[in-house]
Amino acid sequence: MTGVQQEHTSLPLLQVRHLCKFFGRQLGCHDINFAVSPGEVIGVVGESGSGKSTLLNCIAGRIKPSNGSVLFSSSKGIIDLCRCEEALMRKIIRTQTGYVTQNPARSLKMHISAGGNIGEKLMAAGMRHYGEIRKTALMWLEKVEIDPCRIDDLPATFSGGMQQRLQIAANLVNAPRIMLMDEPTSGLDVSVQARLIDVLRKLVSGLHLSMILVTHDLAVARLLCHRLYVMKQGEIVESGLSDQILDDPRQPYTQLLVSSVLKP
Amino acid sequence: MPLTYNFAYLDEQSKKMIRRAILKAIAVPGFQVPFGGREMPLPYGWGTGGIQVTASVIGPDDRLKVIDQGSDDTVNAISIKQFFTKTAGIETTEHTRAATIIQTRHRIPETPLQKGQIMVFQVPIPEPLQFIEPKRTQTVKMHAFEEYGSMHVRLYEDVAKFGRIATAFDYPVQVHQRYIMSPSPIPKYDNPKLHQSPAVHLFGAGREKRIYAVPPYTDVVSLDFEDYPFELEQWDGACGVCGSAHSFLDEIVTDDLGTRMFICSDSEFCRNNAGNTFP
Amino acid sequence: MYVAVKGGEKAVKNAQRLLADKRRGDTRVPKISIDQIANQLGLGVDRVMAEGSLYDATAAAMAIQQAQGDMTEAAFLVRAFRTTLKRFGNSIPIQTTEMTAIRRVSGIFKDIPGGQILGPTYDYTHRLIESDPDLDPHAPCDRPSETDTVPPDQTDPCDNASPLPGELPRVIDILQAQGLLQQDETPSKNAAADLTRQPLTFPVSRNLRLQGLTRGDEGFVLGTAYSLQRGFGIDRHPFLGELKVGYVSVRYTPPELGFEIHIGRVKLTECVMVNRQDGAEKHTAGFETGYGLVFGQNERKAMSMSLFYRSLSTSEKTGKSSFPAQDPEFVLSHCDSVESSGFVQHLKLPHYVDFQSELVFIRNRRKDQAPDRGIADAPDL
Asked: Do the strands A210-215 and A41-45 form a parallel or antiparallel pair, or are they unpaired?
């Protein structure tokens, strides 16, 4: 069951059409098609090297696709992020999307306080009242369950789980419409993972946030995602509702993935 | 070896090239325009950018004032004045009001500037983001896409740590609601003088090979927060010579016991204010 | 009453007079002549020509004398002089295969077409300071004197020896013929790009990179190249393909004449380094080369230049540079001695106004209470 399952509940926020990325002769991803609606969480799952991160980076504008389109539904109409002017693309990415990496130390500014990290997007968007910035930062620290007293501390003094939650706060602070997350729970303790997933679930439902979550962890996928796309060697091999895919996988590759998850 | 130099040292082609850069800079206020800077007979760091700008705009009828730290008499100001007297034969002056071109290092004169005057600033580090992002390949993009978030984060961190913005000189400004610019290492006390000034302000960085400008009557706003607004320096006391309480004051140690007094940094302003006339 | 100290002008004049005195030194000692410097301190002259970006041994010798032997200062004098010179055109690209070589060695083959010739070099001397360095002009030469076609402007007595045959094939051509040389960068469309006429922007083309390195401070280029060799950027042993020192003819086509004329000869040092490149696929394995070219006899500099290979260009493409020597922006922005010397030393200039601002800030900060932290600051929480 390849291809796209169209969800016509509302106008899609993001559409990916025939997206391809080649690195020289090496295939990153090929002919990817799907759509994300407002408030929808989709998961992209598959083993390492299946092209999930490449796909996410293409959508996030971090690498330039070889072919295809990423259509974003903005207030000015539908914009193809792969073909519009760089300034517009950067603006949309900066203001309407958030990006969370697997290793928070690589995207947080480690020499800037937690408050500064959260406040950066607000200040970049033009907020100029220190008190307001600080109040907003404190509110977000609470939302991601970090002690507000830590607002002036450097991220280097935070645990891995705290850094990850700080990264999430820093990306949600300017109310993006879609979050892109690349293996956000990897490298974290199981109990820490559980807390993170919990925080994410509350945020998604509370903010009506769309999300594309790349993960090799099917348990995480089941807990957070409405729909799943299964990738193998750069292509989507199966897609559908999460429960459907995980309880009744059709493709042999998907069956292999599902069966390798430890059951409690 | 040539015994005579072209007027103001530089050949006419070089001057044209610099003037084109200046025109571009005036057309886009606050934007750093790269230019093919030449080696000058003074070292980099000693004002070669300012000298190249002055050499390109100066004519035989101009009157040149040169100051360093506010004074006409410091050795470097003298050296630069001698350079122009030797290579251009122009008249020099210490009177701010009488000067048509004022080349300066690290200060703007206290006496308000007038329409038609040209200020030329010597700039060591033209990039306001230099200590946030040292790579030029990155800062070029940040300016192009107006991605100045990290600049404001720096100010936020200051307030969080010190309760106030910690920059004292070379205080970043936003020009014409667009580019963030370094006003050169003038004390923040002088920043307001750039805002809606009737004079044209040209900035030359010789070593970094960039020119930028603030045209007359342009908005120049020092970065701050609404609730932590930009503040000027203040001293306990006034100038010990002329009594001014509205000028930037230098601290002078007058004896071995460490006795201090404060004197106007702008020596010409101080003399006028104290009622002295001079030849 | 405080009277402002005046007298800057007088101080500068006196300083200049003192300098002139110091430069002359003890008047009982004979004054050094420009000829002596040009003839007997030729390697110093060569360095000043290279860093001054001007092939004029007389100007360089004068600069060395005026700068009391401070080579960085001398290079600065030559650069300032160069600014005043008119540019009337570009020469035809020189052909180093036509070089009249006085020295030529290779580390990659024992024997090379044309031969390995040591020539005048300190390489195999014992570094003992001799109390009476009265060199026999013919002693260091490998070859016997013959009548020759050495140009009249040469200053090195050893150049009296017969040079090597007029045309020497490039050693790396041996590798090229075997198809083992990796494709060099496509030459820049703007072959006339001139670092002395336009500002440096990144990414940098190969010709501007080489220009920056050849006129860069020898100490900086040497040290940075050394770091590469020690593992801060290269992970294997480089090899000397060929090092040549000699004279090359410079030709120019004046627009008024419409044909080529020979306008002089320049002494150059050329170096080609060779490095193994395993290649992404088996059939692309081969050798890549690095190139160095300097005015005069400047082997240390030419070799250092060539050690940068394409480490500077590769990192521009991949964006990866773990070490400073791999970072083109780091290397090329900081190698110019006139820029670096000026900016470092400019700290001697008065900065008391800026410092005053710092004093005011520090004093005010100490006057404040300890600043409020976090929660108490936020208005309604």
From this structure: parallel
Exposed/middle/buried for C11, CB within 10 Å: 0-12, 13-18, 19+? middle
**Relative orientation angle of helices C57-66 and C42-52, to the nearest 10 degrees:** 100
Order of strands, sheet of A14-23, starting from the edge strand that comes earlier in the sequence: A26-36, A14-23, A67-74, A77-80
Q: Are A181 and A100 in contact (CB under 8 A)?
A: yes
Contacting partners of chain A (3+ CB pairs under 8 A):
B, C
Chain A residues with CB-CB distance to B160 below 8 A: 113, 115-116, 134, 151-152
Q: Which of A238, A235, A208, A207 is nearest to A221 (CA)?
A: A238
Write out the H or E segment, with its range, that includes residue C261.
strand C261-277
Residues of A in Cβ contact (< 8 Å) with C381: 135, 138
Compute the distance between CA of residue A37 and CA of residue B218 in angstroms, rounded to an integer. 46
Q: How many helices (H) and strands (E) does chain A have?
A: 10, 10
- Estimate to the nearest angstrom the gap between the alpha carbon of A45 and the chain centroid: 13
In chain B, the N- to C-terminal Cα span, in Å, equals: 38
CA dist C50 and C69 (Å) reads 16
Residue-level pLDDT, tens digit, chain A, 264 residues? 333 334 334 589 999 999 999 988 788 999 999 999 998 999 999 988 889 999 999 999 999 999 999 999 988 889 999 999 989 999 999 999 999 998 898 889 998 999 999 999 999 999 999 999 999 999 999 999 999 999 999 999 999 889 999 999 999 998 999 999 999 888 788 888 888 888 888 888 888 889 999 998 888 899 999 999 999 999 999 999 999 999 999 999 999 888 876 555
Rounded CA-CA distance C149/C146 in Å is 10
What Å distances lie between residue C353 and A193, B71, B269, CA to CA?
55, 11, 16
| End-to-end alpha carbon distance in chain A | 29
Whole-complex ipTM? 0.85
